[in-house]
Every structure is written in structure tokens, then in C-alpha cells.
Amino acid sequence: MAEEVRVRYAPSPTGNPHVGNMRTALFTYLFAKHNRGKFLLRIEDTDKKREVEESYSAIYDSLKWLGLSWDEKVILQSERLDIYKEHALQLLNSDKAYQQEEAIFFKTKKEGSTSWIDLVGNKSIKFENRQVEDFVILKSDEYPTYHLASVVDDHLMNISHVTRGEDWISSTPKHIMLYESFGWDIPQFAHSPNILATDRSKLSKRHGSIGVLDYKRDGFLPEALINFLVLLGWTPPSGKEILTLSEMIEEFDLKDLNTAPAIFDVRKLEWMNGEYIRKTQNSKLKTQILEYLKDISQGKLEHPADEELDKVIPLVKERIKKLSDFIPLTDFLWEKPEYEQEVFEKVVKKRLDIVKLLKEMLEVMEKMEKPWKADMFEKTFRQFGESHGLSATQTFQLIRVAISGQLVSPPLFESVKILGEEETLKRANEALAYLEKSSS
RNA sequence: GCCGCCAUCGUCUAGUGGUCUAGGACAUCGGGUUCUCAUCCCGAAAAUCACGGGUUCGAGUCCCGUUGGCGGCACCA
Q1: How many domains does one find in chain A?
Q2: What are residue A42's phi and psi, to 5 degrees?
């Protein structure tokens, strides 16, 4: 029976964790949880030149936002310098390493080959040892390199399976040689394929938002991002496309991972996010939208208020793919619309007709019994349209533009209801005034 | 250049030698519902399974080669 599964996510603090790294972290997390093991976090901050101070909190925030909690205290490599040095010295003293210009180099084996079974794809990967050159394990500033630090820590942390990106495949022989030199058990390795940008190149900053937190800011839900990422390279045996974290844990196995790199297509993410938004309870969606708006307005949010949101959410729920879509769709409700001649003309061709129609509509509205009822409103204006040679679409579009300035909005009657009779009349009047002015 | 990984619709993928004249999802296009936009429903187009050789009665599935993509070859991780 295998020992306890202990795995780790080991980012270096050089910026916001991007979706590729996070997907590897996700796979690692799922593997741990599926096997009732531990998921640990270690930050590899051994290169002070490349370090970005904010990345520490970005790493924590990203993991927390996605719901990937780690099980033990975070390990910071920068606090363990003496441990690495001690191990480097141990190799030096046993003639397995040598010093050159202040740095310590590891002597690699030059004969034979080194191989391992990679859990992703369950395949054997082999390197000829003569291809593996001696490499630095302790730099002249006494900081360890990745190779030494990760091997030492993985051993000391009792890591059972080393999961990381496939760009580490070529250095794995170095790591195996280190384990052997120390006389330690060699963990299992699993290298997951990369995520590529649409042009098949490695995902990088120039492709725009690639950090996990960028997606948060763009209005994506963590559940949707997770779900999208997990499907990049993995299909659950059940074939389900929409699944919760616990369903993923239930079904996950490293051996089912695809070996080919995947391209990140944001359009599918957007679809999935829409699916999640639609199945979210209104009350929960309310707090999510409110929090999102507060976040991006840095707390200076005036509208919508809590009770305004209650009315609006059912109207927008099926119309937004991202939380951020809420803004352009609803801001006319709390901000004065800006009118444009051309927008009106998209509904009715002649400007003079528009003025005339709007005037009459206004009269009808003023005479309508208050409070306005949706069905009354609809009936009245359907009749109005018929008697003026307008289609229902034209009629309602004209009203829509008059009260919102836009051709697209949530359903008209409900929007009018939220605005209220007074505000609706006021806007219709303003629209009319605008048109009369611009046509004179 | 050397070494390694990879290769099914535009994209994510199903497929583990015969049931594949290749299935699903996103995107695209067309239609229906409808006050706009969406949602929802129906339908279409889209992959000679990168190419070439084998093995086999039979290959998308196994083997070899080629091509292409990606990665590594730092006192970065």
C-alpha cells in the first residue's frame, strides 16, 4: 500500500500566478484530495533579483479566490538558506560536488542513462547521462538554485509526487541524480502539459490578461474558471462538462490527463461563466455583483443599492456572461441617458416622424392610469403602434431608446417599472426636447 | 545545433485494434420563440484522425521515419 500522498504547489514570486501555473496547481490539488492526501504550498523565492513583492499576496489571493486551500504552513525557501547550504556542503565533502569561482557545482553522472515513469501519460522518459552537464547547486551569493532547493525541500517535506509543468522534464534527470547522491527515495513525477495562447505560442504577458486575478477583475466567477481550466487536458470519466470542485475531486486521476498542450480559448470560458451565472441563486448573485462592483470602484459605489439590485438581477441574469457585463446593461437605470440622433433613426427612418410619434406617445403615457401595470402598458402601446403603422418592435424600440438612449436593454416594461412613472415621463420629455433641438 | 515532449473539426476533447462512412461541447451559420439583447428549442456546416511507410484479416488506435509546434540546454525558476 502506498504511503500518504503529499504534493505541493511551488510557485516563484515573480508576478501574478497565471492560468497555466494555476491549472497545474489545480491538478495537484485534485490529485491530493482524491487520494485523501495533503496539498502544500511552498514559495520558491531564491532569486531576489526577479522577485516581485506583491506576488506573495497574489499567490495567496489567487488560491483562496479559487478555493484551493493548502494544508500546512507555507514554506518560504528564503528562510531555509542554511539548510540548502548544509546539503550543498555535504555533497562537496563527499566529493559529489566541487567548488568553482565561489559557486558549488554538482558532478553529474556521465555514463548510462536516467529514466522515470511519468504519471502524465504513464510513459517512460529517458535521458542519456552524458547529456546532463554539471550544474550549479549553490550560487556565489550562497542562495541555492532551483535544482538543489526543490529536491531538498521535496525530500524534507515528504513529497510523494512531484507535479509541475512540462518545461521541467529536461531537468528531471538532474533532480534524480541529486536524490541518488543523497541516498534518498525518489518521488514519482508528473509533468503536465502547457497552456498555449491562440497563436500556439507559450502564454505570456503580451497576450493580455493571463493572471488568475485578471480574470477575477474581468468579472469571471472562480467556479467557472476552475471548471474551464480543469477541462483543458482532462475529461472526467463521467463525461460531464459542468462540475463542482467536489465532483472533480471524486473523478480525478493523473493518468487521465491529456499529454498534448492545450490552447486557452476565452470564448468557451465566457460561455461557461454565463452558465454559472444563470444557475446561481439570485441572492448569491446579488452579493457577487455587489462585491464585484465595490472591488472595481474601490468602495466608491453609489448605485445600485441593495434593493435596486433585487429588482434588476432577475432581468439581467440571462443576459450577462461576466459580472462586468452588468454595468453597460444597467447603468442607464441610474444615470441620465445620452441621446443620439442616429440611434433613433435606426428604429424609424424619418426624423420628423420620430418627433411626432414621440409627442403622441408622451400624451398617451401622461393619460395612462397610475401606477402603470405591465400588461396595460403593453396593450396600450401595441394598439398605438397598430394605429400608427408601426410594428410592435418599432414601437417598443422607440420607447426603449427614449428612456435609455440604447437599442439594447433589459425587458422594457420591467425597466420602466424600475425607473418609475415620473422618471420615465421625464426621460421621454428629454428625448423629445433633444430631437426637436437637433432637428431645428 | 543537441536533447526531450506533443500531433483527431477553428478551439477543448471522446476514442485504448473491428460497433468510427469518427461522437460531444464552445465558436460559426440558418430557423423557431420574442418588445431589443439574451436565454431556451431545432437544424446545418466543420477533422481524407499532420504526412509517409510498416505490423495485422482489419489501424485514429501499435511500430518506425518525416514534417510541424512547443519546451530545455543560466550562479532564472
Answers
A1: 2
A2: -135, 130
